[in-house]
User: What shape does this take?
Amino acid sequence: MLRASIATIALVLAGCAVVEVVPPRHLHGQKGEPGTTPVAHIEARVWGWYLLKFIPILAGNPRAPGLPGMPVPLRHTVKLENVMDMVAKKSRELGADELRDVVSHDLSKWQPLTLVFWINEYEISANAVKRED
Assistant: This one.
């Protein structure tokens, strides 16, 4: 029973795809560029475990982000374009016209205790805005 629980937890935590939204009320009245109204600040990330950095083992599912999420086995989903698609999709869902101040970050980190495993991750954040016409 303990082994099954550990295996289940490991699978859930093995790869992740998440989209987080900060609504305008948490921006404390700060506006972006003139002629726009803030809709939200959006941050998305996908990460997963890789063998020798390049061979995917388990990675987050960018088509179904959320926690807990089911990782995708043996598929290279940790890609910048997948994370950008997640941000753009959420922006459209919230009714925004544009994404501004897009920032990306990537991480590839060797796991020293395992000798052969890496964690790869991409993260993008952006401000979703509506144009004031």
